[in-house]
Amino acid sequence: MRFCRAVLVLVPVAFALGACGWLAVPPVPHGEPAELPRSRTSTVWDDGAGGTLELRADGSFTAGDVCGDYDISAYGPENEPRSGSGTWDTDELKGQSSVTVSFGAGQVTSTYEVLRDGRALKLWTYVGDPDEGHALCILTLR
Questions:
Q1: Distance in angstroms (rounded) separating the CA atoms of residues 91 and 58
Q2: Tag placement on the chain: N or C end, fewer CB within 10 Å?
Q3: The pLDDT of residue 77 is above 70
């Protein structure tokens, strides 16, 4: 009897928390995790809001107002689109590649996961804490 009462109380609470987003993480963009060789990664990526990320074969990059998960400062604007240059590298795990960009001084970084949606490739990351319902940053080939 006690168990039934606990279930009757806990189930609605769990649904309410899920509806508020407390138990739900924003879904990842459509597509499957993919491996992407470094040679195919070095190109220009576009965030759909005017931001670009040019990854060069020599491991350098240039960004122009590109979205990302930067967590720049607790005292200033966090995760705002960022411009600048620096270095990038890939992490190639079996079945899933990721790209990390590092902006020069201070080493502000953002890591993007690789997805394949049909023939289209995407780089993506959560912006800020996924539990807080922030938008996703999705980069596509230009």
A1: 16
A2: N
A3: no
